[in-house]
Design goal:
With about 200 residues, the chain is an alpha/beta fold. Helices cover about 55% and strands about 15% of the residues. Strand 3 and strand 4 form a beta hairpin. Helix 2 packs across helix 5.
Length: about 200
């Protein structure tokens, strides 16, 4: 089973590309969606214990948590030590189920794949990219987003140039959706000859 790591900085179009892979029959694990689930489930008491007052009505209150994190950058690492192991367990369950069903390839959509060193645990790294001005315009359209907040988010991620350098494949979403789909189809064709070793080495 080939494990494809799909990543890219904020606003580059990961979700769009993931949906294209999904439409072509690949199972996709969405790490961001798993975090959202955890914030209303098993992570709640752990986060409340670490950041008192950051939860309400049985789930993490994101504005309160953001305020707690903003006061001290080291608190992001504390949050990661809580959330990342839970996400890894979910990824392992996803991969084990896919392997049991005998699927040929799966996608792990992980925004901080390279930052977290998880590129060593996948067979192929696909980076989604776009011109910087286009990226900023997309992100600043999101509710509540500001230039300052965007700069803070980007500061926690590897530069796009470094991500592209470390990629096996790059999907440039700066063009039309048809252009992006053509790139996805080309990658899928190329992947047929790639060796699948990561699952046996890192996830069994």
């Amino acid at each position: 089973m080939l494990i494809i790591g799909l990543t890219g900085s904020i606003g580059m179009g990961k979700s769009t590309v993931a949906a294209m892979f999904r439409a072509r029959g690949l199972d996709v694990f969405d790490a961001d969606a798993e975090v959202h689930r955890l914030y209303a489930a098993e992570a709640v008491p752990l986060i409340e214990a670490a950041f008192p007052g950051s939860t309400a009505d049985g789930k993490v209150d994101r504005p309160r948590l953001a305020a707690a994190l903003a006061s001290d950058a080291s608190r992001f690492r504390k949050l990661e030590t809580i959330v990342h192991p839970l996400v890894r367990h979910a990824e392992q369950r996803f991969l084990a189920e896919a392997h049991r069903r005998g699927v040929a390839a799966v996608i792990l959509e992980i925004p901080l794949l390279l930052e977290g060193g998880l590129d060593e645990h996948v067979d192929v790294v696909v980076v989604v990219s776009a011109p910087a001005l286009q990226q900023r315009a997309r992100v600043l359209e999101r509710p509540g987003m500001t230039e300052t907040r965007l700069d803070a988010l980007l500061a926690r991620q590897l530069p796009d140039t470094e991500k592209r350098r470390r990629a096996d494949f790059v999907v440039d979403t700066g063009g039309t959706l048809t252009d992006t789909e053509t790139q996805v189809d080309a990658i899928l064709s190329a992947l047929k000859s790639m060796p699948a070793e990561a699952y046996q080495r890192h996830w069994r």
